[in-house]
Amino acid sequence: MKLTAFLIALLMLTATYARAEDWPARPVRIIAPFAPGGTADTLGRVAAEHLSQAFHQDFFVENRPGAGGVTASLAVARMEPDGYNFVVSGIATHAIAPVINPNTGYDPVNDFTHVAYFGGPPIVFIVPKELGVKTLAEFVTYAKSRKEPLTFASPGTGTSGQLVAEYFAQKAGIKIEHIPYRGAAPGVMDVMAGQLTFGSMTWTTASGQISAGTVVPLATSAPQRLADFPTIPTFKEEGYPDLVSTTWFALAGPARLPKDVVMKVNQEVVKAFARPEVLERLKVEQIITEPMTPDELTRFVAAEYARWRPVAEQAHLVKTN
Questions:
Q1: I need a surface site. Which of 64, 259, 277, 310 has the fewest CB within 10 A?
Q2: Which stretches within 104-215 are classed as H helix?
Q3: Contact 157/178 with Cβ under 8 angstroms?
Q4: For domain 123-220, which architecture applies?
Q5: Using one digit for the tens of pLDDT, what is the confidence trace for 259-299?
Q6: Can you give the residue ranges of every domain in the chain?
Q7: 2-120+248-314, CATH topology level
């Protein structure tokens, strides 16, 4: 019996390595958990295009939106770890959603193989020009002078825009009231019109109005000032050193993917996001990227998951049932 079990295990191990060596023998799917045209879709297609060329096999993006990205992430977590199904993971699906809703059905760290980091845009605080506030310090002073909480817009409940604002408010000791929007663009317009006190948005969404001068940018959550907008400070340099964050995206697959497949994909994604034409493309949306090994990415996802839990709990966002 022991010999039979050993032989079966050996055959399974041999088959796994055989599949890994032949990989990819057929088209590979990358599921983007949001609608076409967004950052997750864009970054997934950048990776897919490069991987198709590198491996001489078709890597294609399938958009599968639903439940804030949870639907697609759960589906991939339950798939066979054969290297033919990946998902565009991110702060929304692998750091915030599992914190806010413990019933997502997956562990964001252990139910996935975290393969390669893509990057993402920072969050920016914007205020109406008519508010008369030009700096983050003035904004805090203004907030503390008001009896009522400051109303703010974000792309929706549980988004990184909301969490960054909640984190800032907790650190600054100010009161805020979240006004969620279905998408960030209407929120930006209402901030510009003065209907809300401020907006906490991805740079991608707010950049048009910032460039046009119709709103005032106070600070970004980037690790350093954006090269194209050197006059806008970061939260870090304004006295909030822990408030460095992006609405990041990455590539993940089911848990226990073959290690050599993971390393092959990781190395090619790193190459893809270092190409000058790709960096130029990402610069338009101020998407910040950096190379990470699979182990580094796994630790990063775990840290992000732990980081946002106390913020969500203090803001009373965590569902209890």
A1: 277
A2: 136-145, 160-172, 184-192, 203-212
A3: yes
A4: 3-Layer(aba) Sandwich (3.40)
A5: 999 999 999 999 999 999 999 999 999 999 999 999 999 99
A6: 2-120+248-314, 123-220
A7: D-Maltodextrin-Binding Protein; domain 2 (3.40.190)
